[in-house]
Amino acid sequence: MTVELAGLTLPSPVLVASGCGGTGRELAAYAPLADLGGFVTRSLTLNARLGGPQPRIVETPSGLVHAVGLPNPGLEPFLATELPWLVQHGARVVVSIAGSSLGEYAELARRLGSAPGVSAIEVNLSSPDASAAGVFDVREPFHAASVVSAVQRDLPRGVPVLAKLRSDPVRVVESARTVLEAGAAAVVVGNALPAAMPDGRAAGLSGPAIRPLALRCVADVCAALPGAQVVGVGGILGVDDARSFLAAGATAVQVGTALLHDPTAAARLAAALHHDSEETAS
Amino acid sequence: MSPGPGPGADPAVQHAGPVHVTAELLATKRIGAHHHLTLVAPGVPERFRPGTFIAVSVGESHLARRALWIHRVRPVGGYGAAVEVVVEPRGVGGSWLTRLAPGARLEVTGPLGRPFALPKEPVSCLLVGEGYAAAPLFPLAERLRERDCPVTLLLAAEDEAHLLSALEARRSARAVTVVTGDGSVGRRGSVPAVIDDVLAQAGADVVYAAGPLPTLHAVAAAAEAHGAWSQTALEVPLTCATGLCHGCAVPVVGETGVARTARVCHEGPVLRGDRVRWAELLAGPATAPATGPVVTP
């Protein structure tokens, strides 16, 4: 079941969501990455980040609250070690980026754009960890558009930009329209919701708890912007969840929290949706 | 890149990838304060190395996995081999697991993590375990004995009910010291109080430890003071247990001396004691409870 997303031909509509696939190696122990639509890396910053203090993740009914703090090795070590490994193993690599300024986003785009094996860039515009992490604060749709423009300008043609938006039911359509006008090839709806750890630290809420809200946001964007390509994400656990997002108009889906519960989840969903498409075709 | 195995890491101890399977609970038996669960989890027993663990799912509604030490692998008639894990009925996960009846099915991933590194030479080893966390030390003692390493065991718990397999310990070690917080068995005391004496007496070259973080810290410090290598099996709450979420990172010193973090579930759970930045780790609220399974409350 191939899908066309942002000018790319993907073997499956199921992608690994940012921050939920480790470096890729850990996930590959359970299923080949090449069978998935794409592997979105954890958000990369120019320089290495150790991440936030413990506890970083706590369980909540039907979800996880996380303040991980964007730990990553920084751009250069990623390009030297993780990216070649992912490419070698047949992953379609979507690199998620987070910057503290427009200049940093542009620099990340410039250097990633010339790296072989990068299929697309996902701009993290809605990290709920952002307040703690010093990431450029995207409060208004025009902020998001500025980031997308800065990234787009420094990328070669053929490397599309996916803009990852928050599931804000009030402004998600406006945000989607703005980033698409700024040059994003597709929007990813929706990121973890703003939440707080029990000790009050800024955090994100992910998992099935946010699924109905994410689905509403996806449906609204698809209805309001019929030509837009939307990737649905938020609490997708089973194949029925994935089908709901696709039925609402999403071109593809990302699986995140489900992988933390079952590392085979993305592969299982990809196989089930492939089976769906074969049945439809026959 | 990780605080690697200690001296003479065994090249034969390689990661054979973990498996994700539906396991069947074959038996559940209460022994003291612990429940010993025997699980038929195809693919796990043959990949097991002492120090590795399994992650189990607590039903559908709890997203975080629960990590359990593998206590032993044993042949079971008609099933090949089964793994035995030790669980304390605490927290949501521990309570759920200990209420399961034989025949129950549960999602299991494993074996996960880096095992204890085994010395190439027959050196003297001290194994220190506290409470249910001593579980992985018993299969380790067997492996060490196979390599002609003299094994001394220090077992600790708050009381007799929480002491793991003290009788069995006498079969697997040359000398066994038991300490309990209430003095109900062995000497009254704690690991930090006796570790120096036991270490000096054992003359150990390598110390392996499993237990709460303060105990591991005390063991690592004593080992360093005595010029011994230490390998500590860390226990912190894990979310995915498979290396995907970066939620369990602990502060360590890398090979180059640079401060960094290591994922307990992936680069650990066994880390060299001299590589963990204990003060920083213990200052955070992530300290595992002194007893009780690693569960997210």
Automatic annotation (TrEMBL), chain A:
<dbReference type="InterPro" id="IPR050074">
    <property type="entry name" value="DHO_dehydrogenase"/>
</dbReference>
<keyword id="KW-0560">Oxidoreductase</keyword>
<feature type="domain" description="Dihydroorotate dehydrogenase catalytic">
    <location>
        <begin position="2"/>
        <end position="273"/>
    </location>
</feature>
<dbReference type="GO" id="GO:0006207">
    <property type="term" value="P:'de novo' pyrimidine nucleobase biosynthetic process"/>
</dbReference>
<dbReference type="InterPro" id="IPR005720">
    <property type="entry name" value="Dihydroorotate_DH_cat"/>
</dbReference>
<dbReference type="InterPro" id="IPR013785">
    <property type="entry name" value="Aldolase_TIM"/>
</dbReference>
<protein>
    <submittedName>
        <fullName>Dihydroorotate dehydrogenase (NAD+) catalytic subunit</fullName>
        <ecNumber>1.3.1.14</ecNumber>
    </submittedName>
</protein>
<keyword id="KW-0288">FMN</keyword>
<dbReference type="GO" id="GO:0005737">
    <property type="term" value="C:cytoplasm"/>
</dbReference>
<comment type="pathway">
    <text>Pyrimidine metabolism; UMP biosynthesis via de novo pathway.</text>
</comment>
<keyword id="KW-0665">Pyrimidine biosynthesis</keyword>
<dbReference type="GO" id="GO:0044205">
    <property type="term" value="P:'de novo' UMP biosynthetic process"/>
</dbReference>
<dbReference type="InterPro" id="IPR012135">
    <property type="entry name" value="Dihydroorotate_DH_1_2"/>
</dbReference>
<dbReference type="InterPro" id="IPR001295">
    <property type="entry name" value="Dihydroorotate_DH_CS"/>
</dbReference>
<dbReference type="GO" id="GO:0004589">
    <property type="term" value="F:dihydroorotate dehydrogenase (NAD+) activity"/>
</dbReference>
<keyword id="KW-0285">Flavoprotein</keyword>
<dbReference type="Pfam" id="PF01180">
    <property type="entry name" value="DHO_dh"/>
</dbReference>
UniProtKB/TrEMBL annotation, chain B:
<dbReference type="InterPro" id="IPR012165">
    <property type="entry name" value="Cyt_c3_hydrogenase_gsu"/>
</dbReference>
<feature type="binding site">
    <location>
        <position position="265"/>
    </location>
    <ligand>
        <name>[2Fe-2S] cluster</name>
    </ligand>
</feature>
<keyword id="KW-0285">Flavoprotein</keyword>
<feature type="binding site">
    <location>
        <position position="240"/>
    </location>
    <ligand>
        <name>[2Fe-2S] cluster</name>
    </ligand>
</feature>
<keyword id="KW-0479">Metal-binding</keyword>
<dbReference type="GO" id="GO:0016491">
    <property type="term" value="F:oxidoreductase activity"/>
</dbReference>
<keyword id="KW-0408">Iron</keyword>
<dbReference type="InterPro" id="IPR017927">
    <property type="entry name" value="FAD-bd_FR_type"/>
</dbReference>
<keyword id="KW-0274">FAD</keyword>
<feature type="binding site">
    <location>
        <position position="248"/>
    </location>
    <ligand>
        <name>[2Fe-2S] cluster</name>
    </ligand>
</feature>
<dbReference type="Pfam" id="PF10418">
    <property type="entry name" value="DHODB_Fe-S_bind"/>
</dbReference>
<dbReference type="GO" id="GO:0051537">
    <property type="term" value="F:2 iron, 2 sulfur cluster binding"/>
</dbReference>
<comment type="similarity">
    <text>Belongs to the PyrK family.</text>
</comment>
<dbReference type="GO" id="GO:0006221">
    <property type="term" value="P:pyrimidine nucleotide biosynthetic process"/>
</dbReference>
<dbReference type="InterPro" id="IPR050353">
    <property type="entry name" value="PyrK_electron_transfer"/>
</dbReference>
<dbReference type="InterPro" id="IPR019480">
    <property type="entry name" value="Dihydroorotate_DH_Fe-S-bd"/>
</dbReference>
<protein>
    <submittedName>
        <fullName>Dihydroorotate dehydrogenase electron transfer subunit</fullName>
    </submittedName>
</protein>
<keyword id="KW-0411">Iron-sulfur</keyword>
<dbReference type="InterPro" id="IPR039261">
    <property type="entry name" value="FNR_nucleotide-bd"/>
</dbReference>
<dbReference type="InterPro" id="IPR017938">
    <property type="entry name" value="Riboflavin_synthase-like_b-brl"/>
</dbReference>
<dbReference type="GO" id="GO:0046872">
    <property type="term" value="F:metal ion binding"/>
</dbReference>
<feature type="binding site">
    <location>
        <position position="245"/>
    </location>
    <ligand>
        <name>[2Fe-2S] cluster</name>
    </ligand>
</feature>
